[in-house]
Write a structure and sequence with these properties.
Blueprint lengths: L2 H28 L4 H10 L8 H17 L1 E4 L7 H13 L14 E5 L16 E4 L3 E6 L3 E5 H9 L7 H11 L14 H24 L13 H14 L1 H7 L1 H11 L8
Parallel strand pairs: 1-2, 2-5
Antiparallel strand pairs: 3-4, 4-5
Helix pairs in contact: 1-3, 2-4, 3-4, 4-5, 6-8, 7-10, 8-9, 9-10
Bound molecules: zinc ion (ZN).
C-alpha cells in the first residue's frame, strides 16, 4: 500500500478512536433523564427529594455519565435491573457533586450479589482489596477497577439515609481513597496545606475512635472505622452524609475537613 495512504488511514483511525468515545459520552449525558429513573430515585434514595434542585439536576447528569461509563454485572444468580444500576449510581455520584476530578476514572466494573457474599481472603490483602462486612461481605472495593456490592444491603442503606450506614458511600470512598495509588485514608487533595489539615483532623479522630472501640464506648461513628485509616475515611464519609448535624456538633474539625473535600453541606438536606 502507498505509504501516504497508509499514514492517512492510521491518522483517521486514531482521530476516530479518540473522538467516538467522547461523542458517545456527550450523547449519553445530553439524553433526557428517563422518568422511570426519577421514580427510582424518589422511591429508593431517601435523601433525594430533599436535595436542592441544582444538586438534583447535577446528580442526574452524573448518573447518566456513570451508567454510560461503568459496566454492571450480576453474580450469584442475580439479574441486574435499572433499579439496581440507578440506585447504586446515585449514591456513588453523591460523593462527586460539585467536584470536577473525574468520575472514578479507574473504576470499570460493578458486580452485584443478591445478598452478603463470602470470599476467603484477609480484610485488606496485597492486591489492595478493601473488604467490608463480618460473616458474609456486604461490599468490596478493588484498586484494579472493581466494586462488589450486596444488593439487599445497598437498598436498605439507600432508603435509610440517616442511620450512618451506607455500603455504597463506603465502598466508593475507598475508590476515591485509592486514586492516589493506595487506599490509606488520604485521597487526592488540592495542596500541601490541605494534606496537613486532613492529616491533623483525621489522625486525632481516628485515635479517639480507636480508644472508644477498645473500651467499648459508644461513638457517633461505627467502631469498624477504627480498623485502619482507610476504613476510618470510609466510615467518616458515611457519617458525614447521613448524620451531618451530629458530626458537625461533636466532631467539628473533621466535619469541616470533609465538607471542604466533598464540597457539599449535607445539613442542608437533612
Ligand atoms: Zn471498608
Amino acid at each position: 500500500m502507498n505509504p501516504w495512504i497508509l499514514l492517512s488511514t492510521v491518522l483517521v483511525a486514531i482521530v476516530l478512536a479518540l473522538w467516538i468515545p467522547r461523542f458517545r459520552l456527550k450523547r449519553a449525558v445530553s439524553a433526557p433523564f428517563p422518568e422511570q429513573w426519577v421514580e427510582i430515585l424518589e422511591r429508593n434514595i431517601g435523601v433525594y427529594r430533599n436535595l436542592p434542585m441544582p444538586l438534583r439536576l447535577q446528580l442526574r447528569l452524573l448518573i447518566k455519565q456513570f451508567l454510560h461509563q461503568k459496566h454492571f454485572s450480576g453474580a450469584g444468580g442475580l439479574e441486574v435491573t435499572d433499579e439496581m444500576r440507578v440506585t447504586i449510581a446515585a449514591q456513588a455520584c453523591m460523593l462527586q457533586l460539585n467536584r470536577d476530578s473525574g468520575l472514578y476514572p479507574r473504576l470499570k466494573y460493578i458486580i452485584i450479589y443478591p445478598s452478603a457474599f463470602v470470599v476467603s481472603r484477609p480484610e485488606m490483602d496485597q492486591a489492595g482489596v478493601v473488604s467490608h462486612g463480618s460473616k458474609g461481605l456486604l461490599g468490596e472495593s478493588w484498586q484494579n477497577g472493581k466494586v462488589i456490592l450486596a444488593w439487599d444491603n445497598v437498598l436498605n442503606g439507600a432508603r435509610n439515609f440517616v442511620d450512618g450506614s451506607n455500603v455504597v458511600l463506603h465502598e466508593f470512598t475507598h475508590q476515591l481513597d485509592s486514586e492516589t495509588g493506595s487506599a490509606d485514608g488520604a485521597p487526592l487533595l488540592a495542596g500541601e496545606s490541605s494534606y496537613r489539615s486532613w492529616a491533623g483532623a483525621l489522625s486525632s479522630e481516628f485515635g479517639e475512635l480507636q480508644r472508644d472501640a477498645r473500651v467499648g464506648k459508644r461513638s457517633l461513628m461505627d467502631h469498624y472505622g477504627a480498623t485502619n485509616p482507610a476504613e476510618f475515611f470510609a466510615v467518616a464519609t458515611e457519617t458525614f452524609f447521613e448524620k451531618p448535624r451530629r458530626m458537625a456538633k461533636h466532631h467539628q474539625e473533621l466535619f469541616e475537613v470533609l465538607k471542604s473535600y466533598y464540597r457539599v453541606d449535607p445539613r442542608e438536606w437533612q
